Amino acid sequence: xxxxxxxxxxxxxxxxxxxxxxxxxxxxxxxxxxxxxxxxxxxxxxxxxxxxxxxxxxxxxxxxxxxxxxxxxxxxxxxxxxxxxxxxxxxxxxxxxxxxxxxxxxxxxxxxxxxxxxxxxxxxxxxxxxxxxxxxxxxxxxxxxxxxxxxxxxxxxxxxxxxxxxxxxxxxxxxxxxxxxxxxxxxxxxxxxxxxxxxxxxxxxxxxxxxxxxxxxxxxxxxxxxxxxxxxxxxxxxxxxxxxxxxxxxxxxxxxxxxxxxxxxxxxxxxxxxxxxxxxxxxxxxxxxxxxxxxxxxxxxxxxxxxxxxxxxxxxxxxxxxxxxx
Length: 326
Description:
This protein is of the alpha/beta class.
């Protein structure tokens, strides 16, 4: 399977330098990441929302090594929110954040035992409190313009911390969302807990290299888990967000929503910018809420490589472009 190989490459400094230096790379990356600054992205936001779509915005970047970098990531989101307020698009555009960008993985001399969402949990990494302190003003600012924030899931070692921060934020901002990943064994239990709480939950297959001890490794196992978890979300009290480009899973989601008696505004589909754009418009035209996950920023490498790992067609597109344009 190529996926694990590509994910390993996403953590390689040598591969980062090689791919970043290739003349064709920027042209291909632009398919998935259409800008580096807020000014770059504003025309995209206006175009997509004018076409009946909603967005979730991600300022890409995960390799945070200092508190100052974490504060800069926070400020980048606050600048985005200021622009959305100027455009009066708060109700159409939310934010997605990775807590690693806000300092979650930074070390600390002593991390105290912290109560997790399911009771006492192992001590969180030292950056847990820093990430909470940095993400809270972003959530507050988003709420002030009528929108919200979804906490993206990262590798399995970060999830207890992410869920604890999610639970803490929801005390004051109950609309705060989170992401769960179908390939992890733990996710069915997480889904049952979240479905009963009124949360906004995005379900994705998962895009990190995880060991066989914690995650399904075969596509058919992941797909079956996805359907089981999605049924739990649709039958629960929360707001499901279906993060998938798979036509079969999209059809299954529509059928599960129908069986659960959900109206079209009681769930939504989410897909990545640059992938199946015609399908975005088709679902929106049918009356579904369709949200486009749109990333921007200069630190694009890790995000880009996971997009290649998720879908073989993306890798073929990149390789073909390298051969024909290189």
